[in-house]
Amino acid sequence: MELLTYFQNRRSVRSYTGAPVPEEAVNQILQAGMLSASGKALRPWEFIVVRNKETLRALAECRKPAAKMLQDADCAIVVLGDEARSDVWVEDCSVVMANMHLMADGLGVGSCWVQGRLREASAGGSSEAFVRKLLGFPEHLRLEAILTLGMPVQRPEPHCLEKLPTEKIHRETY
Question: Where is the Nitroreductase domain (predicted)?
């Protein structure tokens, strides 16, 4: 498959069948994240893989207005960044999320990016504080996002290249 086709096919999937995501697929998704580009090759990221159903249900409350797809996900990958290690941890962790999102789709696994940084939990307080309390990650790490994983109920239609907002492209000057 041509790389651009992977980009076209990658869609956020929020409805899952309940079938398990194979462990080999989870490992390949994690490998795609770890192979991400990183400023000065510092790799300021850490991952928490969550497969426990009770924890996934609790994690669904990490975001207001909603991260409800976590309730039915088979797995979630929490992406954390070490801001003391790199001043571009946000960008580096975003590349990780994008790579894992694309890899999941390439493997036929549905995924959805749940933004955590600068977001509020359903019951109030920050999403980061909520997830830290639930998963126990250290204070020096910051929450970037959570990637939900599950076998999709259906595959959304690919993006249409002809419908891309090409008016946003400027050449030479604005």
Answer: 9-61, 64-150
Closest CA to 99 of 1, 2, 3: 3
Residues of the chain with pLDDT under 70: 1
Q: Which of 110, 111, 112, 119 is nearest to 144 (CA)?
A: 119
Distance CA 90, CA 92 (A): 5
Q: Which fold has domain 3-153?
A: NADH Oxidase (3.40.109)
- Supply the angle between the helices 23-34 and 89-106 in degrees, to the nearest 10: 140
DSSP, collapsed to helix, strand or coil, labels residue 30 as: helix
Q: Concatenate the DSSP letters of all residues of 101-169 into one string.
A: HHHHHHTT-EEEEEE-TT-B-TTSSBHHHHHHHHH---TTEEEEEEEEEE-BSSPPPPPPGGGS-GGG-
State the pLDDT at residue 1.
62
pLDDT at 76: 98
